[in-house]
Amino acid sequence: MDVTLLYFDDCPNWLVANAHLDTLLAEHPEMSITRHVVETPEEAERTRFRGSPSILVNGVDPFADADAPVGLSCRVYQTPDGPAGSPTLEQLRNVLAHG
Fold first, then answer.
1. What is the pTM for the complete model shown?
2. How far apart are CA 39 and CA 7, in angstroms?
3. Model confidence over 12-47: pLDDT tens digits?
4. Is residue 48 within 8 Å of residue 70, measured between CB atoms?
């Protein structure tokens, strides 16, 4: 399974998502993680970057909201505890289990 973490440095939420992915990598050693910094509005448009952090599983954003704008912004995820800057570890586990 290929997982890509898209982010930009000015949004600290990617660090939480990155820590979750490190935990999942320990649980799923067959998983491959690529981290990619999105640096320009043009690159955000080209990659359909819906905010930092964005997590792609086998090239698909399982949390995508078609109405979310593309660009260099911090992303908000709906979690069981309310809005957050990253999906929860459990939400990511669920995505990987079905991905």
1. 0.93
2. 9
3. 999 999 999 999 999 999 999 999 999 999 999 999
4. yes
